[in-house]
Structures are given as structure tokens and as C-alpha cells.
Amino acid sequence: MSPAHSTSSQDAPAREGKSVALLTLGCARNETDSEELAARLAAGGWRISDDGEDADVVMVNTCGFIEQAKTESIDVLLDASSTGAKVVATGCMAERYGTELAESLPEADAVLGFDHYPDMAARLDDILAGRAVASHKPSDRRKLLPISPAKRQAAAAVVPGHSRAAQADGAAVAAGAPQHLAVLRKRLTDGPVANLKLASGCDRRCTFCAIPSFRGSFVSRTPEEILAEAAWLASEGVKELNLVSENTTSYGKDLADPQALEHLLEGMAAIDGIEWIRLSYLQPAELRPSLIEAMHRTDKVVPYFDLSFQHSSAKVLRRMRRFGSTENFLALLAQIRDVAPLAGARTNVIVGFPGETEEDVEELMGFLEEARLDSTGVFAYSDEDGTEAVDLDGHVPEDEVQDRHTRVAMLVDELVSQRAADRLGEVMQVLVESVEDDGVDGRGAHQAPEVDGTIALVGEVEGLEPGDFVTAKVVDSNGVDLVAEIVEEAL
Fold first, then answer.
1. What is the pTM of this model?
2. Percent of the chain having pLDDT more than 90?
3. Looking at the DSSP assignment, which residues form a beta bridge with residue 435?
4. Burial of 279 (0-12, 13-18, 19+ CB in 10 A)
5. Residue 490 pLDDT greater than 70, yes or no
6. Which DSSP symbol is given to 337?
7. Deepest in the core among 68, 100, 273, 437, taking most CB within 10 A?
8. Is the four-CA dihedral 136, 142, 146, 149 of positive or negative sign?
9. 246 φ, ψ to 5°?
10. Hey, how many other C-beta atoms are within 10 angstroms of the C-beta on 394?
């Protein structure tokens, strides 16, 4: 694999005329992958931008999770081809479909998968020079890692976001990083918030999800690697770390430490400059009491729970090959709120799954009414290539799926608006994210970046800058968004 690269002010300038526009679609995990690619490309002499009109190559880090995301990826690739630049597809959709995508999309000069990541700069050199680069041939990436989690750390498979001591070449190491580790990342956005990947892949076998087949089995990044990157992000001005993976509660299952995540949080909390640590993608069936307690007692870990419920009917969940029920999920929320009464909680749910009845929909709606969640994503079920759910009986007619989606989404809009209104009078710490002529916006601890609403700050906002923390009292709400008046100056 290519040497790791630590981005810093000492980086050599890239040669003019060798530029790549890197466009990212999909989730926060894809964003971290793009920043890894940016570091690799910058090390290979490429100038990175997001302007497809002024680039030699446009690389699209695609999403391949659901049909809507795949359609968006195709549209962006087609738009990129109109710029006159070379067009490269990579990321999840490219990994999932590879040569099939290449054959159906001749506008793309190459379709490259995860195995191309270590040598991506050289591959773009080839493409720019007109040399043919063979497109990725898809395979089940679960077969690249041992079945036993304990043996995966030693495996040689390419896993995006993971670096090892063997990848370091003595390049400048990030602030606070051990000398044998370099940080393989180049930030593509400014601001006080950054995603930090804990692991890749998933060992669960949900019948509606194809992610494990193209992302592979679950493998944790080592604590040393994660803490080195967290320290580097702090040196770059990051105040909030958003910890991401396909399944964060599985972190450490391959590291011989049953409390690896708890220990990792303690290490992150000790890093100067980091003020908030947020956990995302928590699996309810794996959310152990010790983790809830550790999140509560660890300084800087915000009281926020991103819980992947997907449904609440036990019957539907079993067909999804998941665990839980309305009663179990309500008990889990009660357990969380016993420890942290004002904790934020969000989830995603799928309606119209094969076999779902009207009674199941009513049960889900009743659960959502009682759960008092701050944010809920509602998805209409659709068949996904290669998933077990495609072959299940009891498929719900498309018009009924859409009707159920509309009903549940309308209920959710009402419920999250009420939950936001319930926070009137609450005094909370707010992270300032944007300062514009028309106002100052931020987020509270109960709001994750981009998905859970924002807080408009009023009062003494003069002099505030992104990255400041203020104490404010909630005085109004508008849907999921809040208005809060500053009661204490910025920290």
C-alpha cells in the first residue's frame, strides 16, 4: 500500500494543470473516505478542488445504498461528463457494480473500487495520460476478511479509512500522533466539526441491506490510529468529533477489549481542543448499559443517541433479521433518560417492508408517539439488488407503500415539532457553526450535524465566530429548529 501522508502547512504545492474535482455523495462515512482520497491524491501531486468546471479529472465518490442515491450518483456522473474533464466513479456504487456500471455508463473514463484507493494518484495519472485503467470487478468483500473478528486486524485487505504502521514513511506526522503513525487525511471543508471513522463494514445480516456485501465485514480501526487522527483534527481547529461507522456499538469486537469503545472515549476526551464527542450509528440490540453510563460520565461526550430502530413491530423486525420490539425500545429510551433526561435521540424507520400489515404500521406510529424522539428519518421500502428481502413473500403494493410513508412522515413532522417545542425554556450550550449577515446559527448537544435541525442565536451575537460555544436559552421553535437567546458569552 502507498505510504501514509499527513497534511500540513509543509505540504509541497501540487503542479499546475494536474487538478481533480472530488465530489462526495452519501453519508458521513463517504465524507471521511473522500478526505483519505484527497490526502493520497495530494501526496501524488494532484491539486484538489470541488469545481468540476476547472479540473482535469472529476472524481465522484458515489453512494450505492438505495435507489434514490444511485440515481443521484448517475446524474452527477453524467453532469461531470459535460465539463470536458476525465470522469472517474469511485465509492460505494462503483464498488458494488464495478464493470456493470462501466458498461452502462460509457461517459465515465473509469469505475474504480476500494482496492484502487492505495494507488489512486497513479491511476488518475494513467487516466489523464489516456492510458486505459481496468474497471473494478465486484466481489463479496466479506470474503476478504477472516470469519473470526479476532483475526481481522492482521488481514491484508484494503479497508477505506484504515492505515497501519507499515503505511507510514517518516512523513511529517500529525500533532499528537505517535511517531509510527501518520494521518492519512486532508480536510475538504472548513468548520469546527469533523467526522471521524471508527470502523468499516458490518457483520449484521439485515434482509433489506446490501452494505456488508460491498463494504465487507466489520473491522475496527486501532485506538492509536483513531486518537492520532483526533489529535490532528483538534490541531486543525475542530471542536466537535462525530464518530461514525456502519455500526459503532460493535467497535472493539476484533480488538480483544470488551470495553474498547469506553476506553477510546476517555482517550478522546483528554485531547486539548476537542469539546464535544458525538456517537452516531448505534445499534439498539448492542447498546449495553456500561456504554450508556460511560457516555454519561465521560467529559465531552454529548448526551445524544442515534439509534437504528428501523421499525418497532417485533414481527417486522424478525423479518428484517433484527432484534427488538416496541416494549424493548421504549425501555431502552427510558434507561437512557434515567441517566440523561435531556438527551437527544433520533432514529430511522422503514415502512412498507414485505409482510408489514396495517396493524404493524399502527404499532409503529404508536411507538413514535410515545418515544418522543428529536428527529426521525422515514424511508419507503424498495427492493435492493442482492438482498434477502427481494425474495420475501408479502410485498406491499407500491401505492400502499407510498401511502404509509406519507402517513408516517406527516406524523413524524408533527412529533418532532412538538419535541422541539418541549425544549422551550431549556438552557443549553450551543456550538456556533455559521455567522452570516442574516444571522448566527449553531447546534445544541441534542442535534447532530446536518440531520437534526439548527439553533438560530439571538441577543448579543456581535463578535461570534464559528467554533465558539455560548450558553443560550431556548425561546422559540420552528419545526425541528430552535431559536435561543444568548445568556452567557462565547467560550
1. 0.88
2. 62
3. 440
4. buried
5. no
6. H
7. 273
8. positive
9. -75, -25
10. 10
